[in-house]
Amino acid sequence: MRLHALLPLFLVPLAAASTPQVLQHVFSNPPSTSDFHIPSIHDSAVLARRILHLSSIATLSTVFPSHYAVSEDRPPDMGGSPIGLTDYYAACPPYQSDPTILAVSIATSFKNAAAGSNLALSLRYHAPPPSARPPAKDRYTYSTANLPRFSLIGHIEALSSAEERAHNVSGCFLDRHPDAKLWTPGNKIHESYWARLVVEEIYWFGGFGDRAYIGWIPEEVWRNVSMHEVESARLPGEEGWEERESVETGWEKEEI
């Protein structure tokens, strides 16, 4: 079952007849023939991979199965319903495009995955605080509604012990989450295992549609982003970031 229903609820066009034309592109891209200049799908993939690289906490969403063990304390009508829970991840080599996850078997997300659900890992970019970022050219540059977010949709794949040792997966993960040592495989509390989210689909919401790409990123584009590109890219407010000059629209002054 795909988790497309979990995509941002912001994807609703603003279609009032009296709304300026530009406002129609706040949550959708303008036609390719327009004067708007939108970053390419590849550039958007680079920014998404940078967010994945910078962060290490995201919302992991799954779908409840229709059938479940009688012993499980769960409302009876949850089958097919999605649930999103905060979880740790790390972008570990050699598969930085497929996030590494420490799966605890008893946790809801991984019980749902074991029952056949695919997963969606949803992330958003957090701009630096006002004291640590350059001033913006309009009041929406650092608006949370305008900052990038995306979802990685795929399935979970357990890592073998040999693969974990060969790539020092535990070392990479624990560098980002030292407290997770308590529930690594072999702990005395809960059964757990190393896994990766094998990414199959990527949905990107780069910001308002007059200045960012909104839509699907092909899997091959996602995987072909190099670490050099990831490390060289800059997101809004980062040191070295320069705000693009955008088409003068006047909507920045609109009272929303």
TrEMBL record:
Keywords: Signal. It comes from the Eukaryota. Residues 39-220 form the CREG-like beta-barrel domain. Residues 243-256 have a biased composition (Basic and acidic residues). The keyword Amino-acid biosynthesis does not apply. PANTHER family: ADL397C-AP, CHROMOSOME 8, WHOLE GENOME SHOTGUN SEQUENCE. Residues 237-256 are annotated as: Disordered. Residues 1-17 form the signal peptide. This is CREG-like beta-barrel domain-containing protein. It comes from Lasallia pustulata. The lineage of its organism: Eukaryota, Fungi, Dikarya, Ascomycota, Pezizomycotina. Pfam families: CREG_beta-barrel.
